[in-house]
Amino acid sequence: MEVGRATSAAPNYFRPIHIDNWGVTGYESGRIEFIDGGFGTNNPSHEILKDIKRKLKAPNEVFEVFASFGTGISGENLHGRLSSLNRMLKEMKKEMTNVLRAHEAMENDSGAHNVDGYRSFKYFRFDGGRDLGEIPMDEWSGRRKSQLKLSSRPTGEDTLGSMDRAVKDFLKRPEVKNGLEELAKILVDRRRLRTREREAWERYACDARYECSQAQCHEKLYTLDDFLAHLDSQHANLSEDDRSVSIRESKKCWTYRGAGNES
Q: Model-level pTM?
């Protein structure tokens, strides 16, 4: 919940959130204040790329594909009757929320413009289109009358309808459809490769591990092989049926909240 609040604390829309420090270097005391990175880093793709490379101490070729999804391109027209100061402020805001600069940096790092065709990694960007970007962040138009028809309440149905039409029009574009299909194929192929080793896939996708269910034991192990070795050395007197039950009951997997408790 705190992560969601931190990434939605957009200035002038939602208040900053203060979160207890968990040991981040440079913030050893007190709490850390978070605001939405959209004001200056509206497209965080390149920051993420740099962070991955910095942590892994590796070049661009460390991964195969990078997908970025946006919420529209702003086509704000500044040629109205704006004063010089207002025009400057508008330009500053436009620059701070500019998503194209990060997109261009990602294209350069991925090698999308290389004349020899070499790519460091495959880069996809789906920006949502200009129609979606033209909808103001704080727009919530549309009201619904009460049964007595004496008052109405805001529902946002007009804004939601505009967003729905904009996204559907964007997805109809041939280049968008082709890009999504290509990305989907890459992701499906990668998942199939990972699932060839079921144990490694479960560990990666579900945080699968084993906590011995035998009384007074509760030894924690991270792979099935380790757990089987533990049963052989510490609980060799178990029958085959009890051994199967222990394997089933000792396995712990992370699950989504709402899909049931951790089992």
A: 0.63
